[in-house]
Amino acid sequence: MADVRFIDAILGGDAGTGRSESAAEDDEALDAYSRVVTRVVERLTPSVANLRVWRDGRPGRAEGGGSGVVVTPDGFILTSAHVVEGVDRGAATFVDGREVAIDVAGSDPLSDMAVVRAVGADFAPAELGDAAALRVGQLVIAIGNPLGFGGSVTAGVVSALGRSLPTRSGSASRLVENVVQTDAALHPGNSGGALADGRGRVVGINTAVVGPGLGQGIGLAVPVNTATRRIVASLMTTGRVLRAFLGITGGPRPLPPRLAHEIGRRQGIEVVDVVDGSPASRGGLRSEDLVVEVDGVPVEGMDDLQRLMDGGAIGRAMAFLTHRGGNTLTLEITPTELRG
Hints:
Layout: H1 4-11, H2 21-44, E1 48-54, E2 62-70, E3 76-79, E4 89-93, E5 99-108, E6 113-118, E7 139-144, E8 152-169, E9 172-182, E10 194-196, E11 202-210, E12 218-223, H3 226-237, E13 244-245, E14 248-254, H4 257-263, E15 267-274, H5 279-282, E16 290-294, E17 297-298, H6 302-308, E18 318-324, E19 327-333, E20 336-337
Antiparallel strand pairs: 1-2, 1-4, 2-3, 3-6, 4-5, 5-6, 7-8, 7-10, 8-9, 9-12, 10-11, 11-12, 13-20, 14-15, 15-16, 16-17, 16-18, 18-19
């Protein structure tokens, strides 16, 4: 009779039970994974609404829809700007069957974020997290509400960080920086829904699917971070977001060794193009210039510069510390308001 231990070694498990130790460990890991996802879904699903929107308050002429995430008990709902593009009213439906009217409080296509206000009270707000704390490989859960009575849930990992998403509003264009890339599948109607971490905190608003077909490939989410929190606050209070216009395109570039040693940094912004007649052009900024500071604040990428180009920069002369042809000079540039 064959030695049971020998058979067990070949099969990689317990010959008597047909189960290996690794299989038991896999079951335990799966249970832990399932518990995390289930806990997040139970926590967030009441906060995720199905949105149906239309023009001029005419319910019979629906223009589109998507999902949204409740962020205050009195009914402010965060969603994607493209979900409410061109509309002003609609309805929100929750998993408990409640349906309420909504008005578009404010929309910002250049960040693909919008806020709608639901009629009513005692809504279940989601907790907002910080996408800046995410790490590649971290578990994330995408929750949408495309039908209104049953949430759509997918889980995956953060597959990349620091992505950029191009946006446009009229003639104005902008890159949304630090977009979260995930392999959690996104489906029709999930736009505007929540991307949550393992603790149920909303770290992104699902915005786009990249791939050969629906629900395939990768998904992108606008990050919830310090910059987007300011955008949301502005949309809630004024219905719009003021931005300063500089008139350049550019990207990060390593600094020359001597300059890097002098200022104690390794990277700046290389100016790729300057718009004719723009504030940057009038201020003397040129292609191939390296911008290292703005009003004494270090800038190493376009996201750093975009954070400084808020409403407070409009009409204010700002000092741009610039490296050009081996020399360092300071240019005074006065941004104007960015208009679509």
